[in-house]
Each structure stands twice: as structure tokens, then as C-alpha cells.
Amino acid sequence: MRKEKVITTWAVGILSVGCFLFFLLLYPYHNLLKEQMTLFLHSKDYFLSYLAKPAWLTHYIGDLLTQFYIHPAGGALIVTASLLALWLSFRALFRAFDMRSGIASLAALIPAGIEFLFHCGLHYPLSSTFSTLLALGVLTVFFRLRSNTLYRWFFLPVAILLYYLAGHAIILFTAGWLLFGITHKIKRWYYTILLAVCSLSVPLLLRTIFLLPPGQAYAYPVKEPLTLNVDMTWKKILELDYESQRENWTKVLLLAQKYEMRNRIASYYTNLALSQTDLLGEWLFHFYQPGPAGLFLPVSQQSTPLTIAFSNEVFFRLGDLNMAQHSAMLGTIFSPNHRSSRLVKRLAEIHIAIGDVPAAGKYLGLLDKTLFYRKWAAAARELLTQENIPLREKIPTLDTVRLADDYITSLEVLLESNPANKTALDYLLCFHILNKDIPSFRDSYDKWYNPSGERIPGVYAQALIVSLFQEGADNETLIRYGIPVHVVNDFMDYTKAYEEAGGFSAALRERYDKTFWFYFHFATFR
Amino acid sequence: MKNHFNIHLFLLITVIVACSKPSGIIKKDALPPIYPDYADVTVPVNIAPLNFMITGAKGLIVHISLNDKNISLKGRNKIRIPAGKWHQLLNEATSTGQELSVTVLAKIEGQWYQYSSFLWHVRADTIDPYLSYRLIEPGYEVWKTIQIAERELGTFRERIVADNRLIGNSCMNCHIYGNQDPSLSFLHLRGPKGGTVLNRDGTLRKINIFDEGMISPAVYGNFHPSGRYAVYSTNLVLPGFHTQKGERLEVYDQESDLVIVDLDYNKVIPFPESFPVEFRTFPVFSATGDAVYYCNAPRITVPDSIFHLRYDLLKISFNADTGTWGNKADTVFRASSLGLSVCHPKTSPDGRYLLFTMADYGTFPIWHQETDLWLLDLESGKTSLLEEINSPYSDTYHSWSSNSRWFVFASKRDDGLYGKPYFCYVDREGNAHKPFVLPQKDPETYHNTLKSYNIPELSRGKLPFGAADIERIYNKVPAEKVSNK
Fold first, then answer.
1. Whole-angstrom Cα distance, residue B443 to residue A372?
2. Closest Cβ–Cβ partner in A43, A329, A338 for B140
């Protein structure tokens, strides 16, 4: 018996350490995102807002602790501790059903494992685990009741209370109570079932008070669909996103190179990193490009909440602060809690750059009430009175009205206002290149690009020579444009090879797949 | 022993007195920096307590005086006025014709300051006791959660009367009353099972106000005083985004026109075809119902010429007996001659005033910072900019109280982003007084919310339906059809 206990302790200890290290080292970005998609305010008003919904207690505690996900170790520790508590609680529950200790320990690993997988999802809230824990705690107390009368009569009031405190916990509580009641307590099982049905109808009956649709009334505090897997694709995307936020552009490029993802969001961050390291015109085709879609993330009713949340990053760095604000506001609206520390911070940054003190003050005021952003807010407040804010130079001074996805107009207005906006120029030229729109590329290049003796970035030279070739330019023009000789030679070689290949890409891929010419001929937009 | 007890008691009392009465007070010849700005505002006798706060204060003492009566309140940085004492004070103020004087002492950075006193002007003219508004994040053209709330103005009770999470996250548009009557209102529900929900005497109907020949389903609307008719604009709306800082969203019509709907017979009465094709929007009936005021602009190419798009205020007659439009429209106010564009005209229930907003151009004043409220006296024909109440930010979406002495409007004056309902008193001479924001139990509420209070509308009573009714009618009741035959 003692040996079994030792083995169990060691096994669970190892699993716990493994879980902690998994969330700390291998899979920290989901937790970091969850923290960014909440904005926990330390104010009475904010606390009271939780009381308007079921699961207020677990929801509040869950969100309170989610703040600590800001540190990867905090997230890893809290999730591990929660899962350990869950395993212990389930084990106690199974033991109450007269299960042998060893079997109970093993069986308890199943719900703990499922919960672990839930936590690997993008939006699974910590509060949901606390709801389950509270259900298990209350069940344990019920199982210890000696009086069958109390077991029966306390059930419904406790179930209603539990729903208010812990939301979906009512389902587990009812199921456990019913099973234990039939097997251990009450002989009139039909009466027990009737009470259980009453309990399970509580969310349905109360949902109009809490203003929840039926599905959400049962799932609360879970608000987004559940996923049950370790999603390494999202892990990689979130890693790119996280490093981009920290402006670790070289690391973003190294990760992009390592992961070789064929994913629009990955391309979005890779291209942003290329532009910030002044390599967009050089290395554009060293990475997967899904057409111009890899430069911007759309903000529309077809977008996902996360792409909306991410979409402000490029606009912000371009200096198109109106579109950045639009994206950040919508990102906030579509986040699971309709509040996001990351996006409120971004909104504050945007309004500081604009010089809109009242609007910046609104967002800084919110951040003042947080545990981990109040120092940032205090420092940012200093900037409100400063004139010299680098981003301000990029903000358009011209006004026009464009559609949300009219990126070309946006970029041209940025350049009209500030021709030195290199990020905007790179994005404009690459937009045309990725769109295979040679005439527009040429127009933009002639209008905005000023090589001033510097070497033309490779991709631009490759696009330029196609344009010049199409118009039958002479050598003098090529020299005037500063096209390097090796580009001219490569272009000749490519043209010859393309003709010889008869339109098939295989023969050209090895040598030319990182060129605009190859993209021009073989890339297809989906 | 007894002496010792007395000494301790004396010391304890001394300490308590010393703590409660601040010393070394510096007098400041300025109004206190209270939030919300309730200094020298005019309030109705039936309003909830004007709780306020001073950000960063570590102690507050407030004296509210009326003749020889005085309420003293203390707080750390917030003042919450007890409702019973508050209403007693307001009633006494109106019966004696006196003003409430408010003195604020605040401890800021360890120092107590006494600020200049200010007044609360209490008026016996009551405001309609209920207010409905749409709670929505100022998220431009897409939405996630929208609620329509009803607030009792004499208390802090708020009730949600519609929630779009219960109707498949569909959009919900403004909730509009007829004659400020809670038994006569409509709101538009969009989405696959949508329609205009009509509330008449508590009976809800869902009508799909869209028929052949209409540009779109009904958009901006207003009830005829009889409740039988409603006038709507139908608009093909497009959103665009400004590039310049400070400017944000521009929503404009590619096409727009007006229709009147006979709600008894579900009959659409289109705008006369004899009129030229122009932009027509924001229609409202006159107080007597014999005319429709609306905004009109010549049709130009949008968005290219959006900066030149200016609407004038026009009026066309309407015969309720025959259900027919007039055949001639008169220009009531030529805003374009001032280089401005008129939006949202609203007639006062007594028929004397027409309140509207003006922006530099276009038809979406909510994101135009320069939008201001103007008042047209229909008796004298005089139009005036309400300088006393306008702010550097958008002031629009107004609604009258049934006695025509108050109106509510949405203002973004705090931060330029989030609209809040402000109430303004219009005296018998037509003077508008300094407005005040809807009081909240916790004055910090506005700081913490990320919602705008959109399209505030006053009502004489509580609405006879709730969110569950709206959910039911959306999901279970098929929409009635309209026709123009």
C-alpha cells in the first residue's frame, strides 16, 4: 500500500514537473495570449460586473489569476497547480465511489489529461478549471453527508447556488450527485432523477436573467468553442506574434526560417520583421508568400477574432494610426471578454502618438487599475506632453476616405504625407509585386523610390527588369535604373530556362524559387 | 480609575475630532476638478443623486446646502449622496425656488484644499423618468455585443431590454419611441430572422419593412403622433475610413430615400416620384403630424466628393387622413449656405422647436468631432448654435422630454471616443442651460466602461417588454410583410 502511494506520488510529481516545463518552455505562448486577451481591473465597479453572470466566483478568481500569465512561469505554475488540484479532487471523488486507491489515481489522470488538453487551446479560461474544482469540492461534502434527507433536500438549492458561483459546474455536480445517490444513498432512484433533471434545467430557466443563449448558459464561463489538442501550428504563430511584439525581429526571421510555415499569419509577421530589418525588398521570396494577403490581415466580418487582434501591428508600424485604431478597437470587441490588456495598451500608444490626450487618458486610466500595466501607464503618461514622438512623423497629414481593405490608397497617402516612410514604400512596392501588378509597381517605383546611389534591393531589381523588358528598354535605361549586371544575366538565364522547361516549374525550382520571376510564373492565389 | 477612564475618553474624542476636521486648509479660487463635471448644472427635480469623484484625492468632504439645511458627506475620492436626503433636498429646492450650494474640500497630495462653491440649479419641470440607449463599443462598422438598456432616471436601476447575444449576435439598431410613450416604440433587428419590432400597447409585432422599389430595409425613423404611421429613411450605407489623424470613420449613403409606412395595414407609401433623385434621410414628423422634416442633399459621387456633401433641412406636408405626401418641399434651413451639413432633426413635442446637429459635411455626425447641436425656434424662425452646451467633440443623437423642457443627447466630450447621455434644460425663453451627464451610482463607471451610450431616448414610462420577449419574437415569430399596393 505504502509502495503504491510512493509510486503514485512520484508519478504525479514527475507529471506535474513535466506539465510545468511544458507550459514554461515548450508551450508558453497560449498562456501569454490568454493574459493579453483579458484586462483585469482592480476596482469595485469591475468586480460588480462579474455578478451579472453565472460563475461569477470562479470567473473572477480565474481572471484574477490569469493576470499572472504575463510571466511564462506564472502561467505554467498556475495551470500545473490547477491540474494537480483537479487530479486530487477527481481521485477523492473516485475513491468515494469505492474505487481502489491505485485505480482511482489512474482514473483521475483521464479528466486531468483532458483538462490539460483544454488548456492547450487558444481561449480556454482558467475559470473553467476552477468551476470544475468547485463542483468536485461540493460533491465531496455531499458524499460525506450521513443524512439521506439532507443529501436530497440540500441538492437543488446548492445546485442553484453552485450555478451562480461556478456556471457549468452544475452539470458535473448533478451527474456526480445522481450517480452517488443511486449507488449509495437513495433507493427511490426515479425521484433522484427528477431532482437531477430539475437541476440541469436551472441554466435554461435562469438564462434570460443572465442574458445568455442556451448553449452558453450551460458552458459558462467557457465562451469560445473547446479544442482538445496540442496545436503546434498555433504555438508557432503565437511565438512569432510574441517576438514581434517585443520587436525581436531577427528572432522572428530565424523562427520563420526554422518553421517554414505556409500560413498567412506567419507570412504577415515574417514580412513585418523583414520590413523592420530593411530586408523586405531583398528577402521577400526567401519565405512563403500567399500573395498580397501576406502583408495585411483583413478586418471584416469574415475574420477570426485573433486575426483582427493581430491586424493592427502592421498599420501601427506603418504610421496608419486610424486603421491601427480601427483594428485594435475591433480586436478588443472580439476578444472573449471584450477587453484586452494588449489592445488597450496599443490604443493608448496610438493616441499618444496622435497627440490625443483625452483619448489616451481614457486607456491609460484603465491600465492604471491593473496590476502589471500600471507602471507602463505611468511611464506612458509622461509621453503625453512630449513633442518628439518618432511615430508621429509617419501619420498622414492628408485626408481622404478609403475602404478598410484599400491598402494601396492607405500606403500612397502615407507616402504623400511622408516620402521618407520606408516601411510604407516597401509595403507598397511589395504589394504590387505580390499582386504581380508590374505597371503599378513601376509607377510606384518611379514615383517614390529614390535609390540615391545605393544598390537596388534584389526583388525590386527583379521586378524592375521585367517592367523594363516589357517596354523594350535599352542598355542605357538599364544603367540609368542601376540594374546590377548579375540581375540582367540572371534574368536572361531564367528566361531561357523557362522557355526550355516548357512552363513546368520543377526544373526551375532549385535555382529560381526565391526570385520574383519564379513567383510571377508559378505562384497561384487561392 | 474613573479619572483615567475620562482622560482616555477625552483623548479618544480629541483624536476623532482632529481626524474628522481637516486643518491647514488652503482656499482655491477655482472650481473643484470633479468628475463628472456637475458644477453649476441645471437638474430636474426627479433625477438620481449626482455622485461625483476627484481622481487622485485621498479625502473628500462635501457640504450641500439649501438655506439653513446642510448635508455633509465624506469619502476617499468619491462622494455618494444618499438617495432619500437627495430627493428631499431637491423637492425643498423646487418648493422654495432656491439653488443648492455645493462646497468641496479635497485632500490632494497630503494637502487639504477648499474650492470655490458651485450651484445646482434645480427645476420643477420634470424630465421623462426613463431613458433607453444602445450600449455598444464604438467599433465602427462591425459589432459583437449590443444591448439596449432602459434606465430609471430617478434611481440607478438599469434593465436590459434587448441583447444581441440572444438573437444570434445580429445587429440591433436604435430603439425609438413615439410621443415618448413606452407603449409605442420600435427597434430594428437585423440578421436572417430580423425585422422591425413594433411595440404598440405592449403587443410586439415584427415587420419586414422592405419592399420592391425600396433601397434597403427601414433605417432612421420616427412615429407619426397618431402612432398609425412611421416615416423611415432607406439607405444604401457604406463605411469609409479617413486617413488623417483625428478623423476616423465616415459613413455615407450611396443612395437614400424616404418612405412612410402605414402600420395598421402594413402599407408602404413611397416618396413622390416627381421629386429629383437626391439624398434624403433622417425624417421626422412635425409635432402635429401634418409634415415631415428631413435632410436633403443633391446627389454627388461618394466617397470622392464626400467633403462637399452637405444636407439642408427640408419640410414636406403629409396628409394623415389620406396617407399621402405633399407635392412640394420647402427648405427650412439651408445649412449648405453656411458650409455645414444638417443631421438628425427632432421636433419638440410642443411643436415650438426643432433641434438638430450640424457637421462640416456628410451624414454621420457621431464621428465628426465638430458636430454641434443647433436649435430652430419654429415660432420666430430664429436658428441658434447652442454654445452653452456644445463641446469640442461630437454632440448629437438627441431626444426631447415629453414636456419639451429637457432633451438628452449623446456627447463624446470626455475623450472623443465614448458617447455618454447628457441632459439639457431649455427654459421658457428658449435658453439652453449647462448639461449634465447621466448620474451613476459609482461615478467611476464611465472611466471603466468601453461602451458608448448610443442613441439615448427619453420615455414617460417603463417599456412593457424585455430581452426574453425580443429573443422570442426574433426566433419564433415570422416577420409580417409590407407592400406598396
1. 24
2. A329
Nearest-5° angle of CA B446, CA B449, CA B455? 75
B159 or A525, which is more confident: B159
Mark yes or no for CB contact B241/A326 under 8 Å.
yes
Residue from A263, A275, A208 nearest A239 by CA: A263
- Residue B17 confidence (pLDDT): 44
Chain B residues closer than 8 Å to A336 by CB: none
Q: What are the DSSP calls for A11-76, one per residue?
A: HHHHHHHHHHHIIIIIS-HHHHHHHHT-----SHHHHHHHTTSSSHHHHHHHHHHHGGGGSHHHHH
Question: Is B171 part of the contact surface with chain A (CB cutoff 8 Å)?
Answer: no
Residue with cell 438638430: B356
Cβ(A352)–Cβ(A384) under 8 Å? yes
CB neighbours of B410 closer than 8 A, spacing ≥ 6? B133, B366, B394, B395, B396, B397, B398, B419, B420, B421, B422, B452, B453, B454, B455, B456
- Report whether B60 contacts B81 (CB < 8 A): no
Count of alpha carbons within 13 angstroms of residue A247, beta-carbon side: 4
What is the nearest CA distance from B115 to chain A, expressed in angstroms? 24
Lowest mean pLDDT among A3-12, A16-25, A89-98, A119-128: A3-12
Residues 303-322 of B with CB under 8 A from A: 303, 306-307
Look at strands B291-298 and B406-411 and give their pairing: unpaired
pLDDT, residue A33, reads 97
Interface predicted TM-score (ipTM) over 0.90: yes
Question: Average pLDDT, stretch A362-369?
Answer: 97
The pLDDT of residue B11 is above 70: no
- State the smallest CA–CA distance between residue A2 and chain B in angstroms: 54
- Tens of pLDDT, residues B199-241: 999 999 999 999 988 999 999 999 999 999 999 999 999 889 9
Interchain proximity B448–A46, CB inside 8 Å? yes
- For the segment B284-307, the average pLDDT, to the nearest whole number, is 95
**pLDDT above 80: residue B485:** no
| Domain extent listing, chain B | 26-123, 130-481
What pLDDT band is residue B4 in, cutting at 50, 70 and 90?
A: low
One-character DSSP codes across A66-126:
HGGGGSHHHHHHHHHHHHHHHHHHHHHHHHHTT--HHHHHHHHHHHHHHHHHHHTSSS--H
Q: Do A45 and B445 touch (CB under 8 A)?
A: yes
Of the candidates A326, A365, A401, which has its C-beta nearest B140's C-beta?
A326
The Cα-based distances of B353 to A321, B330, B383, B400 in angstroms read 41, 17, 10, 10
How many Cβ pairs closer than 8 A exist between chain A and B?
124
- By C-alpha distance, which of B63, B48, B47, B56 is closest to B78? B56
Q: How far is B311 from chain A (nearest CA, A)?
A: 19
pLDDT at B6: 56
Share of chain B above pLDDT 70, in %: 94
Specify the pairing of strand B406-411 against strand B395-400.
antiparallel
Judged by a CB distance cut-off of 8 A, whether residue B59 touches chain A is: no
- With an 8 Å Cβ cutoff, are B414 and A211 in contact? no
The residue ranges of every structural domain in chain A are 2-219, 295-395, 451-526
- Write the class of the CATH domain B26-123: mainly beta
C-alpha cell at A241: 506574434
Instruction: Please report, as a single letter, which amino acid is at residue B289.
Output: G
Amino acid sitting at position B430: G
Buried b (16+ CB within 10 A) or exposed e, A54-77: bbbbbbbbbbbbbbbbbbbebbbb
State whether A356 and B246 contact (CB < 8 Å): yes
Class of the domain covering B130-481: mainly beta
**In the block, residue with C-alpha cell 427597434:** B187
Q: What is the pTM of this model?
A: 0.94
For A485-497, the pLDDT digits (tens) are: 999 999 999 999 9
- Contact flag B248-A403 (C-beta cutoff 8 Å): no
